[in-house]
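Predicting holo structure, pyridoxal-5'-phosphate bound.
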Amino acid sequence: MNNAHPVIGWEKELPVPDQYQFNDYLSVRDGRLYFEDLDLAGIFLEDTHAKQLGRALPSPLEIVYLPLIENRISAMRRIFAEAIEHVGYGGQFFYTYASKANAAEEIIRTTLKSGAHHEMSSTVDVDIAKIMIDRGLLSADRYIICNGFKATRTLYADNILQLKELHDKLVPVIEDLGEITFLMESGKQFDVGLRQKSYGHHNSTEEMDHANSRFGLDLESMWKAADYISAAPNLKLTLYHAMVGSQILSSEDFVRWLTPGMETYARLKQRHPDLHIFDFGGGMPVPMTLDFDFDYAAFTRALLTAMQEICDRYGVPVPDIMGEFGRYTTSEHGAHLFKIVTVKDNNSKLPWYIIDGSIMSSFPDSWALSEHFIVLPLNHLDKPFQQVQLGGITCDSDDVYPPKPSHSPLYLPVETEDLYIGFFSIGAYQEMLGGVKGSKHCVLPEAFELIIDRDNDNSYQFEILQGQTPADVLRNLGYRV
Ligand SMILES: Cc1ncc(COP(=O)(O)O)c(C=O)c1O
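Done. Tokens:
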């Protein structure tokens, strides 16, 4: 990152110039912020989209912009196809969606329609896969990768055995030695993966072995597991899994930390010829702020070149490459829009702009991990700006943005009459961590949701999901209303 602080929005007192492009999907037209061709303020104010929708929608509002998911998936598949061609790589690429980032129906439906394979981590994930198989969206040609702990006789382990009846291309990834037993005893023919203990920034297998991580197997256990699998008549070792972290912004580091895993893959391949997939897990970085700088093509070429070199050295063919893309797939399609309901100076160092919702329960990573997200006004972009701080409408002193202890300045228009703002790149993990429905901090009802897609003519299609009513919240809490 070149900047001393993450860039979360406009950083000047001057108005934003017309046609200004904040990134590849957010731009300014006539003082309004557009999400591709969608005039965001026009959803609330009695003009453009409000007319199309038949009414102005209430704020706060969650935006689910499905075309961006398709766009990101096809972009990454293109990057890998070009890199494979460029370095003369002898294997394929499998784009897999890590459903833990966002398991909403419209998201899973869109990733599958866009051709992604599917990764999961719990028993309800298996139920989701069954629904998608039933609907013909999770077709027989797609891999289903089962990560996560799946001890014998747990709901997840039993559900995986049932799923195998419906879908053959299923690869449980062994997280712990004990997990081999239920697969072996099932008598069903299974392709199996092994996850090496790799989470963290390690330069050697020895360092990986000593990491304080609950995920995956140390090297000795990997060899043992591989031998058990080879000895079982119904199991075949086909996939190696290593994940080294999340949001690693240097291609060089990312590839370097994956290198001990690539070596382990090559050594395993020498003894276990059915092995053919190297799964580097998740962690592909994604722009959650405006200063993002990561060259996906350079990373991909470096990864494939390193793999070629290592496999050459060990005298084995290169593997197919799989990535489990969670944040990358779903971060940018999600936005959460609010109205500024009060402006208060309160003798504070910067004026407080109060939104009609909660920052901490809508974006838990901002509150818990000081994570930054993009924040921009939806209207009045052609007017002067001032530095401000945002407060949620809860009574909690931590419900603020920029997150504590950030040094990123936040500028919003001085004009606050009917001012709307948006948090952007919040589509991965935030909703799943904050929970869907239920009852939230300070009993704030959940926002309405607007699901946006494009039809074959590229025109917008809208679906409105109702937010919670006060009665919904009260009923959740046991009040008989
Ligand atoms: C095994 C596994 N795969 C994939 C992912 C997705 O990671 P990301 O959202 O960084 O792509 C995770 C995230 O925790 C994970 O644990």
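The domain at 68-330 is CATH 3.20.20.10 (TIM Barrel).
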